[in-house]
Write a structure and sequence with these properties.
Elements lengths: L3 H5 L4 H10 L11 H14 L4 E5 L2 H13 L4 E5 L3 H4 L4 H5 L4 E5 L8 H8 L12 E7 L10 H13 L3 E6 L2 H8 L14 E5 L9 E5 L5 H10 L8 H11 L3 H6 L2
Parallel strand pairs: 2-3, 2-4, 4-5, 5-6
Antiparallel strand pairs: 1-7, 6-7
Length: 260
């Protein structure tokens, strides 16, 4: 699939207007402003659960810091052989993950199956640390093949991953497109199906620069927060990302754009 168009496209007028409005006046820094609080509340409403939100500048940062927080130093992560994190992040997951090793899994239509995941995990017996410790499995939603995981497919992979005490990360650079295509609530293909951390990208959906790490597992939030600061992705003027997020979520604008 060629996904160039959503990177080349401009910005939604609604987002541009929100940025202009946010530019007026003063506001507290580093995410302590009202717009960031409102964006967090809006995401909690959209996903129908309590969660933590951490804005970052790029999808690469969202993915790599999510994986770093989930794996710890020297952990092993699993992803599809065509996944963006394995082929197009310039080694950022290993760099920011302090030695994270990514193991790729082949599969038709850009998807990992529970059977394929189980077969690979068979090379890493529980209780043995000779080959490293499995820590996280990452799913691309939408996949690099342009396909989507159904709620049932995600739940099956989540069950397999959690059975090995692994976290489930979702690369949601085009998450809005998956929600619009499946016609399900965001909750159905994230935390309800076992996803612990979501890289939520709205830049490709029509924002200027709007990437967030959405953490459903509260225990992982402090790790994400610490890694974000260390990697230099804590925004001083967080309100400008929050303003974009609010404009995108308002009235389902993000899904309107994704389904266009």
């Amino acid at each position: 699939m060629n996904f160039a168009s959503d990177n080349w496209a401009g910005v939604s007028p609604k987002v541009a207007a929100a940025l202009t409005e946010a530019a007026a006046g003063l506001a507290p820094a580093y995410g302590t402003d009202d717009l960031t609080a409102k964006a967090t509340a809006a995401l909690r409403e959209v996903f129908e659960t309590d969660l933590d939100v951490f804005f970052v500048a790029t999808g690469t940062a969202a993915n790599s810091l999510s994986l770093a927080a989930a794996s710890g130093p020297g952990g092993i992560g699993f992803c599809h052989a065509d996944a963006h994190i394995a082929n197009d992040e310039g080694g950022a997951p290993a760099f920011l993950g302090r030695g994270l090793t990514l193991v790729s899994i082949p599969g038709a239509d850009g998807k990992i199956t529970p059977e394929a995941l189980a077969a690979v995990l068979g090379h890493y017996p529980q209780g043995s640390y000779q080959r490293g410790t499995p820590r996280v499995v990452s799913l691309s939603q939408v996949t690099e093949a342009g396909t989507v995981y159904t709620p049932e497919e995600i739940a099956a992979l989540g069950y397999a991953a959690h059975g090995r005490k692994m976290a489930v990360h979702m690369d949601g650079a085009r998450f809005a497109n998956a929600v619009a295509h499946l016609g399900v609530s965001p909750a159905k293909i994230t935390w309800e199906a076992g996803v612990d951390i979501l890289s939520l990208g709205l830049t490709k959906t029509g924002a200027w620069c709007c990437e967030a790490i959405v953490v459903f597992d509260a225990a992982k939030a402090p790790e994400v927060e610490a890694h974000r600061k260390q990697a230099g992705h804590l925004f001083s003027k967080s309100r400008f990302v929050a303003a974009q997020m609010l404009a995108m979520l308002d009235g389902g604008h993000w899904l309107e754009l994704a389904g266009a």
